[in-house]
Amino acid sequence: MSLFDKHRAVFELAQQACATRHCWSPYPDMPDKYPDAAQAKAAGLAAFDRHLENGRFALDQPGIFQWVGEEVSPYTQAPLGVQYPQSDIDSLFGAAEKAMDSWAQASIDQRIGVLMEVLEVIYRDHLFEVLHAVMHTAGQSYNMAYAGSGVNALDRSIEALVYAEQAMRSVAPSALWQRRFGSSDIQLQKTYRLVPRGTAVCFSCASFPTWNAWPSMMASLATGNPVILKPHPATVLPMAITVKAFRQVLQSAGFDPNLVTLALDTTSEPIGKRLVQHPQTAIVDFTGSVRFGQWVEKNAHPALAFTETAGCNTVVLESAEDLDAVLRNLATTMCLFSAQMCTSPQNIYVPQSGVHTPQGLVPFKEVATRLASAVQALTSEPKKAAMILATIQSPQTLALLQEMQDSGAQRGQVLLAPQAYPHPEFPLARTSTPLMLQVTTQERDLYAEERFGPISFVIACKDADDALHQATQDARTQGGLTAFLYSTQEDYIARAETAYARAGAQLTINLVGAMPLNFAAAYSDYHVTGLNPAGNATLTNLAFVASRFGIVQSRRPVTAPQEKAA
């Protein structure tokens, strides 16, 4: 049985889910639902501990010239102590180009089958190992590392394979073409060949290393391109585990493992710009800071660049049937992973007169204080705070919290001051409760850019129309991946849908209940529109994969077969 046949049933279900956009996943959504969960959890933790004990992560790839590693656990604030092989950049590109030939000649079914096998191996053999690696590099909670950086990232990877397969299948492999020219009938046999664009460089980010990187890798590999993976220096381990799994499956399937390699750097000696501008770079997938993402978009040419950076995700709160339910949902979403997510809301726009409810108009000041109280209720008890806030990935975020608190106190009002909370399992964890500031639109310079981390602004606007204008202006000028609207007025909702669509931001309307507002469902939700400065690509759709290969044709006249010699 071929690998494609082995995974055909799951792949076909994924195709159906992408076509209908309904809820589906082949993976359990919680760690305790994983098959043989107790054994898998113990094995994953043991594998993670072995990395720390060994000190060196064995990875056989070309051009190794030294060993580097500078990861620090946000939970213990101690170095992981793991060293990784650093390879010469030119050696990686040379090996990738050499590996591409046989991979490009493989059939669509072969490539999809091998990549589905990679995902099965990660899920079956490495999921809980990756979970602990993500926890102790990115700082996510246990459950978020399992869901967001584990099974949901696997789902997004299958989704990328579905669209890659769809794009490639849309090209007929051959055609017989006939046309009359004057008195002649011309017949041409045409052959269409899918040609990979070339080596892809994939950057993974510090806070969610797998979620964007895995599907980006799949999009490139499925269409025939090798991948050089460039992890953030703070979160190498989950990506080193990833690369090792890819290489092992590729080699077992008879392909050159150098189709996937790891390119490492340090914070003091970055290599990102060299990778982007390397003459053999054909594709760049970048997730990370706005500043470097904008540089990539301007400087990657002639390589194709697919970016997701960040922006000012907004909330417009005009009216509500149940204001307490709305504020609870907003508070939860604002606190998830200490707002270190690209979909976390930051700017909350409220008419200065207040919010309309069935019980009457709730004044702006009361809305702000009630939202702050809802956030405080989630974060005041350490056990609950640990589950929802987790840790602060980088010390730079703590510095930004202090800077913004000082500015907010001078120019607005501090609704909630951040403070470290004692993590019940890791007493040395780097933690902080959220900072909430109350300001007016006059303080736009404070909030009109992404303030990464648990920082939010409740902003008083002239009226509901001004609130909508201010919020969509954020998306248009600064970028916005997601937006949230609460209103009981259908005409206002309709205007908001149009305004946010023009601003290129995904909109969630009047959602309350158990689901986090910023949950993005694979096979159903399009992540990023590519229509504002928050990123130029959507994860995932046909456009995310179709330009990763070209179509080259050959044609020749059809001639009658020669008669056999007597």
Structural overview:
The chain is an alpha/beta fold and 566 residues long. Helix content is 44%, strand content 18%. The chain contains 17 helices and 19 strands. It has a seven-stranded mixed beta sheet, sandwiched between helices. It has a five-stranded parallel beta sheet with strand order 7-6-5-8-9, with helices on both faces. It has a three-stranded antiparallel beta sheet with strand order 3-4-19, with no helix packed on it. Helix 6 (209-222) links the parallel strand 5 (199-203) and strand 6. The longest helix is centred in the first third of the chain and has 31 residues, at 108-138. It is globular. The protein starts with a helix and ends in a 9-residue tail after the last strand. Residues 562-566 have low confidence and may be disordered.
Brief write-up:
It contains 17 helices and 19 strands. It has 566 residues and is of the alpha/beta class. The strands form five sheets. It has a seven-stranded mixed sheet, sandwiched between helices. A five-stranded parallel sheet has the order 7-6-5-8-9, sandwiched between helices.
